[in-house]
Amino acid sequence: MKTVILGTGSWGTALGQVLADNHQEVVMWGRDQKEIDDITLHHRNSRFFDTEINEALKASNDIGIVRDADILLLAVPTNAMESVLQRAVEHVSRPVIVINVAKGFHPISHKRLSEVIQETMPEGTLKAVVSLIGPSHAEEVIIRKLTVINAVSDNEEAAALIQRMFSNDYFRVYTNSDVTGAEIGVALKNVMAIASGVLEGVGQGDNAKAALITRGLAEMTRFGVLLGGRQETFLGLDGVGDLIVTCTSRHSRNFMAGYEIGKAGGAAEFMKNNTKTVEGIFACKVVHEEAMRLGIEMPITDQVYAVLYENKDPRQAISELMARDLKKEGKGNYQR
């Protein structure tokens, strides 16, 4: 089966190498000719990694390479997903499986990304959507460090196919059918990662970070379950697993964004000058607005929103979280 990876960024490159290592037919498509040449001719993607990659992995700027594809893997930011997919689908010759690896929401409609894909693909062109998501850093996958993630889909046959294609001795894939819960979990953990980075930026320590991760998980679960996800999903790879890795690592753009904001004492300069895709910034706005609309209590998300979009002092936001009414920890509070 032929897989075309749309995007030549870090995660697309790392996943492309997994497929190449597994002797799968895979080719990457991108716009940046320098990256394309680096991958194809020099077996590197020097913009993101300081290591050689599997020499079988090739790249092209010809979108026509999707013509005989069986699988399209979308490795682009959420705000580019629709336009790239619309361009690619003009050339597909048969129904395809679309793999989503992004973690977020549509910035305008607030829909989950699998829903965006389903609505973007014309009738008769989509076989299934599978989200390949979970606790993972491209920087570790590219050097073949052990990684375990999920293939999430309501099409169990498609999820199992992707599971088999990607799994090997350093990259293990589970399947999960809770599309709603998994997609919400991996999007919301980016908001919590910004909060975790802020804590480190203002000089807080491990105790604060552990509390943030724990209460962040409660918040993620509360939001996700009320929107139709399963509670157990948030205790798995696409919940607590992704939350831990993103809230504790400097490989995470979301964590590092929060760190810079905390260190600067505010988000204004970061928001003005940032050129990287930090999905948690967009996810925070979506979740905050949806929680307000639905009446869901989201104290951490609300404070992150205030720091990002209302120029609130991060230290004041932390103080207000600590000064909230005292409560009992337990199942009842967990679900409110």
Structure characteristics:
Rossmann fold, 2 domains, 12% strand, 8 strands, eight-stranded mixed sheet, N-(1-d-carboxylethyl)-l-norvaline Dehydrogenase, domain 2, 336 residues, alpha/beta, globular
Task: Report on the architecture of this protein.
The protein has 336 residues and is an alpha/beta fold. It folds into 2 domains: 2-176, Rossmann fold, CATH 3.40.50; 179-335, N-(1-d-carboxylethyl)-l-norvaline Dehydrogenase, domain 2 (Orthogonal Bundle), CATH 1.10.1040.10. 50% of the residues lie in helices and 12% in strands. It has 15 helices and 8 strands. The protein has an 8-stranded mixed sheet with strand order 3-2-1-4-5-6-7-8, sandwiched between helices. The chain is globular and about 60 Å long. The N and C termini lie far apart (46 Å).
Describe the main β-sheet briefly: 8 strands, mixed
Oligomer state equals single chain
Number of helices: 15
Structural class of the helix and strand makeup? alpha/beta
CATH C-level of the largest domain: Alpha Beta
* Overall helicity: 40-55%
Span between termini: 46 Å
Kindly report the spatial arrangement of strands forming the biggest sheet: 3-2-1-4-5-6-7-8
Radius of gyration using CA atoms only: 20 Å
Q: What name goes with the CATH superfamily of the largest domain?
A: NAD(P)-binding Rossmann-like Domain
- As a percent range, the share of strand residues is 5-15%
